[in-house]
UniProtKB/TrEMBL annotation:
<dbReference type="InterPro" id="IPR000182">
    <property type="entry name" value="GNAT_dom"/>
</dbReference>
<keyword id="KW-0012">Acyltransferase</keyword>
<dbReference type="Pfam" id="PF00583">
    <property type="entry name" value="Acetyltransf_1"/>
</dbReference>
<dbReference type="InterPro" id="IPR050832">
    <property type="entry name" value="Bact_Acetyltransf"/>
</dbReference>
<feature type="domain" description="N-acetyltransferase">
    <location>
        <begin position="6"/>
        <end position="162"/>
    </location>
</feature>
<keyword id="KW-0808">Transferase</keyword>
<protein>
    <submittedName>
        <fullName>GNAT family N-acetyltransferase</fullName>
    </submittedName>
</protein>
<dbReference type="InterPro" id="IPR016181">
    <property type="entry name" value="Acyl_CoA_acyltransferase"/>
</dbReference>
Length: 162
């Protein structure tokens, strides 16, 4: 397998390239589920040291993104040291090249470096590519959390990273 020259940049959640990719992932949710993700998100949550957002570029084009935000047990659905992944997305023309796996590894690395102990995330039954990605990278099912806690289409995963 040829490794693509992917450049990962830490950007603000509301950076123009991030906003473009986040809008695209929201449209993907509309296609698959009929509506955008309603999980409350504050761009400030993705600012270091309690969060991070990355955009990956191929030949100068933004093609992949993802971020994490810190949670602790003061939120009843989380444990101290959790980092929640949000907005993982790869544009259509760049899928199948291992880019999501590389972003996921970077999110795990940076969350661990920030002292986080576990990564958690929510995806859905209509996203088999995401379910396969997380399963292949050591994630296991965890109890539901967040806005889709009781939604039958929601699947939550977690992975210790400490």
């Amino acid at each position: 397998m040829v490794l693509l020259d992917l450049e990962l940049r830490v950007v603000a959640y509301d950076h123009p390239d991030a906003a473009k990719l986040i809008s695209a992932v929201q449209q993907e949710y509309v296609l698959r589920y009929g509506d955008e993700d309603i999980t409350p998100v504050d761009p400030a949550e993705f600012a270091p040291p309690l969060g991070l957002f990355v955009v990956g570029y191929l030949a100068g084009e933004a093609v992949v993104c993802g971020g994490w935000r810190a949670h602790d047990s003061d939120d009843p659905d989380f444990r101290d040291g959790d980092a929640e992944i949000k907005r993982m997305y790869v544009v259509d023309e760049a899928r199948g090249k291992g880019l999501a796996k590389r972003v996921l590894a970077e999110l795990e690395r940076t969350a661990r470096a920030a002292g986080r102990l576990r990564i958690v995330l929510e995806t859905g039954t209509k996203q088999p590519e995401a379910v396969a990605l997380y399963g292949a990278n050591g994630y296991a099912r965890v109890p539901g959390f967040g806005a889709y806690k009781d939604d039958p289409l929601s699947i939550c995963f977690g992975k210790p990273i400490a």
